[in-house]
């Protein structure tokens, strides 16, 4: 205990832990980049993770000087370049001829802030609705429009070209990737999801397991009886829906009993590793980061991500530790460290609803992650948090400011 507290003091005084803030372009442009930079500077924040390509969103903006809400379709916040193949981002229509990214790049260079790209990949309902041939396909053959399938070569090219475009158009210090994986799930909002059947973790996972032409063909090439794997998934989901199979059955245990489906999943994990190799080759100077743990970092494999293997192609992971206590945040951080094949682990913190409701808890989480060795924390998010919560961040970072 004695040693622990000395070590802790040493970390507090000598730390070079960095602090970043996620932000939307409208947060910066409505308030003014300089004004935001001044405020963040006073808080000890030196980096902006700026949304550049994003899923559809309806925001509530408690301290925005121009509005209280903003809706955006899935879109890019810049006008994409020429170097795309079959699929390109759709620029946000409310920008008009403006280019939000360009405006911010221009204005931010006079501030102390460095700029990172917060980049959403496969979760894109607009592209999914426009191009159902690119989406995940349920074991029943239904397109899941919220997610593009990374096994599809056109999607792979899109993800690669998107990263290359961002890398070349702005002096990003970091390009951070969100949902560059087999995104699935029944509750991410905006589609007014109607699930009045308890699928549980197992049913939800199997329902989101992609059986598109490319996933099936990759698995067939690996010698897997795809038709049989798909039928197994269907009958299990139907049995869960009928109440004839335990929806809370552990996914890992179920897979141990169904090795053909486990093998099918392994193929897409290899596919995603090759996609990350492609992404790494598209970046010249920026550091490449990948967000893990939206649904628990231990479940990364359920999105096709082998963190040990992907560590060869990214500079760091940001573990999304939107937790309500120091202990659970540190636990997520440690789990990510254990899984990450030596990659550096940064952490994301949500000092607001629904995770954190008081200043002390936020300070405890920040201290816990710092003491666990996090070299950098990102806070979620500038425009969404009330002013009061921004003060919590400033106070929590105070021991780490030089
Ligand atoms: Zn697929």
What share of residues are in beta strands? 15-25%
The CATH class designation is: Alpha Beta
Helix and strand run: HEHHEEEEHEHEEHEHHHHHEHEHEHEH
The main β sheet shows up as: 8 strands, parallel, barrel
The CATH homologous superfamily corresponds to Glycosidases
* End-to-end Cα distance: 26 Å
CATH architecture: Alpha-Beta Barrel
- Output the radius of gyration: 21 Å
CATH topology: TIM Barrel
The secondary-structure class comes to: alpha/beta
Round the mean pLDDT to the nearest integer and report it.
94
Shape: globular
Strand arrangement across the biggest beta sheet: 1-2-6-9-10-11-12-13
How many separate domains make up the residues?
Answer: 1
Level of helix content? 40-55%
Per DSSP E runs of 2 or more residues, the count of β-strands stands at 13
Continuous helix count: 15
Describe the structure.
With 402 residues, this protein is α/β, with parallel strands linked by helices. It has one domain: Alpha-Beta Barrel (TIM Barrel), CATH 3.20.20.80. The chain is 42% helix and 16% strand. It has 15 helices and 13 strands. The protein has an 8-stranded parallel barrel with strand order 1-2-6-9-10-11-12-13, surrounded by 5 helices. A two-stranded antiparallel ribbon has the order 3-4. Strands 7-8 form a two-stranded antiparallel sheet. It is globular and about 60 Å long. The structure holds zinc ion (ZN). Zinc ion (ZN) binds next to helix 8. The site of zinc ion (ZN) has 7 residues, from helix 8.
Please outline what is shown here:
By secondary structure, this protein is an alpha/beta fold.
């Amino acid at each position: 205990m004695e040693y622990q507290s000395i070590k802790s003091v040493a970390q507090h005084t000598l730390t070079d832990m960095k602090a970043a803030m996620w932000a939307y372009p409208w947060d910066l442009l409505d308030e003014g980049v300089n004004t935001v930079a001044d405020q963040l500077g006073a808080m000890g924040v030196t980096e902006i993770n700026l949304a550049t390509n994003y899923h559809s969103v309806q925001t509530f903006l408690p301290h925005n000087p121009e509005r209280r809400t903003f809706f955006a379709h899935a879109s890019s916040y810049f006008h994409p370049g020429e170097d795309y193949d079959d699929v390109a981002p759709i620029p946000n229509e409310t920008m008009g001829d403006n280019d939000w990214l360009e405006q911010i790049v221009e204005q931010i260079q006079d501030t102390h802030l460095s700029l990172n790209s917060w980049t959403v990949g496969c979760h894109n309902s607009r592209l999914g609705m426009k191009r159902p041939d690119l989406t995940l396909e349920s074991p029943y053959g239904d397109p899941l429009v919220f997610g593009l399938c990374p096994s599809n070569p056109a999607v792979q090219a899109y993800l690669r070209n998107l990263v290359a475009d961002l890398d070349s158009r702005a002096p990003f210090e970091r390009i951070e990737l969100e949902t560059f994986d087999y995104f699935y799930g029944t509750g991410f909002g905006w589609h007014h999801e109607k699930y009045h059947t308890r699928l549980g973790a197992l049913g939800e996972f199997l329902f989101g397991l992609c059986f598109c032409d490319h996933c099936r063909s990759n698995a067939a090439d690996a010698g897997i009886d795809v038709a049989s794997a798909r039928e197994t998934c269907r009958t299990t989901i139907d049995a869960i829906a009928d109440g004839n199979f335990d929806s809370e059955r552990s996914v890992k245990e179920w897979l141990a009993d169904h090795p053909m489906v486990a093998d099918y999943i392994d193929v897409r994990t290899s596919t995603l590793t090759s996609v990350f190799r492609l992404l790494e080759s598209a970046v010249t100077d920026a550091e490449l980061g990948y967000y893990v743990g939206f649904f628990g970092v231990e479940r990364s494999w359920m999105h096709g991500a082998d963190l040990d293997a992907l560590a060869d192609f990214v500079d760091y992971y940001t573990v999304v530790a939107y937790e309500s206590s120091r202990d659970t945040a540190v636990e997520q951080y440690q789990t990510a460290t254990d899984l990450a094949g030596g990659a550096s682990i940064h952490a994301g913190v949500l000092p607001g609803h629904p995770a954190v409701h008081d200043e002390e808890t936020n300070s405890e989480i920040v201290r816990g992650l710092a003491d666990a060795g996090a070299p950098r924390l990102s806070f979620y998010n500038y425009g969404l948090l009330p002013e009061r919560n921004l003060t919590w961040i400033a106070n929590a970072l105070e021991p780490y400011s030089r």
